[in-house]
Amino acid sequence: MEILTWYARDRKNVTLMELSELTGISKSTLNNIENGKVSPTIEQLEIIAKALGCRISDLYESPYK
Q1: H helix or E strand, kind and range, residue 2
Q2: Positive or negative: CA dihedral 1, 6, 36, 49
Q3: Which of 13, 33, 46, 62 is positioned for an S-S bond with 1, CB 3.0–4.6 A?
Q4: pLDDT by residue (tens digit) across 20-58?
Q5: Is the CB of residue 57 less than 8 Å from the CB of residue 3?
C-alpha cells in the first residue's frame, strides 16, 4: 500500500509544516509517512484526512480500496 498524503497536500496547496500545525503530528513523522519510512496509524490517517478535507481512502493507493 502506497501512502499518498503528499498528493493530497499538493492538491490542497498545504505545506508539510502547515499540515503539522493542523494535525498536531510532527513534521518529521509526516515526512517519514510520506517517504514510506513508517506506516501511519488509522488514527493518524483520520486526523490527516480531516485536516485536508478528504477521505482516508484518498490518502493511499491499494488495489483493495
Answers
A1: strand 2-3
A2: negative
A3: 62
A4: 999 999 999 999 999 999 999 999 999 999 999 999 999
A5: no
Give the three cell numbers for residue 45: 490517517
Separation CA 3–CA 46 (nearest Å):
13
Give the Cβ contact number of residue 32 at 10 Å.
14
**Residue 60 or 28, more confident:** 28
Task: Name the amino acid, one letter, at 58.
Answer: D
Which residues lie across from 60 on neighbouring strands?
Answer: 3
Q: Measured between alpha carbons, how far is 48 from 63 in angstroms, rounded to an integer?
A: 21
pTM: 0.89
CA atoms within 13 A on the CB side of 47: 14
Q: What are the grid coordinates assigned to 25, written together?
A: 503530528
The pLDDT confidence band at residue 65, using thresholds 50, 70 and 90, is low
